């Protein structure tokens, strides 16, 4: 397959057979100087680093540097360079500035130590998770202009991160432009809340740093409301705002890392242009759970990729835009936070950072100039480098007024037997000179359509899905709280037994125990961080009536009673004792998992997307969650933390939760509870239809299956009565 092949990838991001092959060895011109240049026989002697050196003022490459002009330091100690080769692309004048039509003749005899590569490889990576809804239009317009600036020999790929459009490397500019029209932002850091909690205020509350910011927010937001109720709501909004920003940052960095990992299969210098409106790490508030920039930096090294971070900063305009619902109380801090993460990405990877408030055109112009020539440096790798750790790398030159683009660290590999040495990882091929040309390798270009590490291409970004689900639950739980259902709950416990026959032979058997429970189930709103609690009131066990069915749950929460909560706890404890198996189980309730989507809890979790599935006629997106904060919602023996993980199946259009999963592991005990919802025509809402439970502990396996019916609505609102007779703070 020739290098002029020109086939486009699938715009929907579905992996396709690649149309392009990459010439694994460079195609460069030969000259008399090449034959006398020292080369290294093996790849274990040197480490290589791609470097761009450009004029500060206009970004034009500096093309007359020799090895003695470079200073390379590893962990603060200088290393001698084995070589410093100049790499340029196709047409020599491109390396020194704009060209006229008469200057575009190909170079036949470039200067000594210069290698002419056939093409550049660009990737436009659009961070949709941190771009406002509608923000993709300005990006698409500027990126389209960028394509016009590239010579036809260059390859371009397009990826929307973390999910969405992916166009494979191609010379066909039309396919890239078509892909750009499909880029849509999700607006993760534009989330509005009732009390207009800003990014800075959210991080001030969550981290406890700079408390004056949070205190000022509370004074401003709650001066006309009930103080306790307002404070609880603002705290919930702050957790939600911080969680959405943190999730979007993690998604952007992890998917960018995945992209770079894919690109490591393309052994050539690459230029990755990250376009984003914000990336919030919370570093100025001391946040410690930000995205993994170290892994990102190593991925950039292995990919031989130069990053360019383009910050499309609309924050200044947004701060004064009359269309904004409320003006932020901390607009300057918010702007800085949205900028911080992008600058941290640039610092970690040695990327160029450009902040743009009007158009991307100047940045794209400069990138075209800067990448028209660069250097491949090689320095000796010593045994202490090969400890599997990241080593600090600093590259300088003996020239004033220049900008250097080079990675800030490297990781050297070890030998297969674990001793220092061995083959270099991708991006550290180690050759002091590019190898001699070889035949093209077919279909080795890494597929860009497969870089979305958190979701399939058609998915809605996870912050948007989670926000919709949280908003949906606010009304859904109140509606469901006026409904009582009848539960038929079958439990089966298999317990291994061991004994001996009369002849002394060892015999293993399984003892099976069964339990059938019939209960009333009711959801109510109570004080506390969860706010919503579900109660099971068992009235029949294995067909035997254990109490009269008198709707005592309804009466308990509707009729005034001084010891209402104590009696509710007593009912819950009584019902839990009817479960078979060891230990008390009070999480095996159908709506228990929904608590992890409440505003007051959502900040304790991380989220990611994992495909989609058809549930009850809806094409639901699967959101995986992990509880990371302590204390955890589920408590174990001795009040120990039991972190939960699981999945939500969410209708991306409405936010409706159509299926849930909660999983825990504590010592040898593993649990999993799945609940599926269906529409109940008589009530006009979705209700739990099926709960499936599995618990494994010390060889025992307990399985449960519950179905729900006989739904009936009572007319007195539970929440209103609780508020009337027992004012509840902390209700979400």
Percentage of β-strand residues: 25-35%
Rg for CA atoms? 31 Å
Distance between the termini: 62 Å
Poorly predicted tracts of residues:
1-44, 91-112, 316-325, 419-444, 450-459, 716-732
Number of alpha- plus pi-helical segments: 15
Morphology call? elongated
Task: State the major sheet.
Answer: 11 strands, antiparallel
Q: In which order are the strands of the major sheet placed?
A: 19-18-17-16-28-27-26-25-24-21-20
**What percent of residues adopt helix (DSSP H or I)?**
10-25%
| Extended strand count | 28
Structural class: alpha+beta
What integer is the average pLDDT? Answer: 75
Report what the structure shows:
With 732 residues, the chain is an alpha+beta fold. Helix content is 25%, strand content 30%. The protein has 15 helices and 28 strands. The strands form five sheets. An eleven-stranded antiparallel beta sheet has the order 19-18-17-16-28-27-26-25-24-21-20. A six-stranded mixed beta sheet has the order 8-7-6-9-10-11, sandwiched between helices. Strands 5-4-12-1-14 form a five-stranded mixed beta sheet, with no helix packed on it. Helix 4 packs across helix 5. The longest helix has 37 residues, at 227-263. The radius of gyration is 31 Å and the shape is elongated. Residues 1-44, 91-112, 316-325, 419-444, 450-459 and 716-732 have low confidence and may be disordered.
């Amino acid at each position: 397959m020739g290098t002029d092949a020109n086939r486009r990838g699938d715009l929907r991001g579905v992996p396709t057979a690649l149309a392009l092959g990459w010439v694994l060895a460079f195609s460069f011109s030969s000259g008399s100087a090449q034959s006398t240049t020292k080369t290294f026989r093996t790849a274990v002697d040197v480490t290589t680093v791609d470097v761009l050196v450009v004029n500060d003022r206009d970004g034009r490459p500096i093309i007359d540097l020799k090895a003695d002009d470079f200073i390379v330091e590893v962990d603060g100690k200088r290393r001698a360079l084995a070589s410093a080769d100049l790499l340029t692309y196709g047409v020599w004048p491109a390396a020194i500035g704009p060209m006229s039509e008469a200057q575009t003749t190909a170079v036949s005899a470039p200067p000594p130590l210069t290698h002419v590569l056939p093409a550049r490889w660009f990737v436009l990576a659009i961070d949709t998770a941190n771009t406002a809804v509608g923000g993709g239009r300005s990006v698409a317009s500027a990126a389209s202009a960028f394509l016009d600036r590239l010579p036809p020999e260059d390859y371009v790929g397009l990826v929307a991160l973390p999910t969405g459009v992916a166009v494979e490397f191609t010379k066909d500019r039309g396919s890239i432009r078509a892909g750009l029209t499909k880029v849509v932002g999700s607006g993760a850091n534009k989330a509005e809340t009732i009390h207009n909690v800003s990014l800075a205020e959210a991080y001030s509350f969550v981290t406890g740093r700079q408390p004056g910011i949070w205190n000022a927010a509370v004074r401003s937001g709650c001066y006309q409301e009930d103080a306790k109720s307002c404070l609880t709501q603002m705290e919930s909004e702050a957790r939600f705002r911080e969680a959405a920003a943190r999730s979007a940052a993690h998604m952007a960095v992890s998917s960018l890392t995945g992209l770079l990992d894919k690109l490591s299969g393309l052994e050539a210098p690459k230029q990755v242009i990250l376009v984003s409106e914000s990336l919030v790490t919370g570093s100025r508030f001391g946040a410690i759970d930000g995205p993994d920039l170290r892994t990102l930096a190593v991925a950039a090294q292995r990919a031989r990729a130069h990053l360019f971070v383009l910050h499309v900063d609309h924050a200044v305009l947004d701060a004064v835009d009359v269309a904004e619902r409320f003006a932020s109380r901390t607009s300057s801090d918010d702007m800085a936070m949205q900028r911080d993460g992008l600058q941290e990405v640039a610092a970690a990877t040695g990327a160029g950072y450009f902040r743009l408030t009007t158009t991307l055109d100047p940045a794209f112009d400069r990138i075209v100039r800067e990448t028209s020539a660069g250097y491949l440096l090689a320095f000796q790798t010593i045994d202490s480098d090969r400890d599997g750790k990241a080593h600090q790398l600093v590259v300088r030159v003996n020239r004033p007024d220049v900008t250097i683009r080079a990675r800030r660290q490297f990781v050297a590999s070890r030998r297969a037997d674990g001793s220092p040495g061995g083959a270099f990882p991708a991006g550290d091929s180690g050759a002091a000179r590019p190898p001699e040309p070889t035949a093209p390798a077919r279909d080795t270009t890494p597929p860009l359509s497969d870089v979305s590490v958190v979701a399939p291409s058609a998915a809605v970004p996870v912050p948007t899905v989670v926000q919709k689900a949280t908003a949906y639950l606010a009304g859904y739980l109140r509606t469901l709280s006026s409904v009582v259902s009848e539960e038929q709950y079958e439990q089966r416990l298999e317990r291994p037994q061991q004994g001996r026959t009369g002849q002394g032979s060892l015999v293993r058997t399984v003892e099976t125990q069964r339990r059938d429970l019939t209960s009333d189930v009711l959801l109510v709103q109570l004080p506390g961080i969860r706010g919503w609690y579900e109660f099971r009131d068992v009235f029949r066990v294995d067909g035997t009536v254990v109490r009269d069915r008198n709707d005592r749950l309804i009466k308990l929460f509707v009729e005034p009673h001084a010891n209402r909560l104590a009696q509710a706890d007593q009912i819950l404890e009584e019902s839990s004792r009817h479960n078979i198996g060891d230990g008390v189980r009070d999480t095996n309730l159908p709506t228990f998992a929904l608590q992890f989507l409440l505003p007051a809890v959502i900040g304790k979790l991380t989220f990611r997307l994992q495909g989609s599935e058809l549930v009850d006629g809806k094409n639901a997106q699967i959101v995986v969650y992990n509880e990371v904060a302590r204390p955890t919602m589920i408590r174990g023996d001795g009040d120990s933390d039991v972190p939960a993980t699981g999945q939500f199946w969410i209708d991306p259009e409405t936010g409706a939760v159509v299926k849930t999963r909660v999983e825990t592991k504590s010592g040898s005990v593993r649990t999993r509870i799945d609940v599926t919802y269906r529409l109940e025509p008589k009530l006009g809402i979705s209700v739990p239809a099926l709960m499936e439970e599995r618990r494994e502990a010390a060889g025992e396996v307990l399985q449960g299956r519950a179905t729900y019916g006989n739904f009936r609505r009572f007319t007195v609102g539970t929440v209103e009565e609780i508020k009337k007779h027992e004012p509840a703070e902390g209700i979400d």
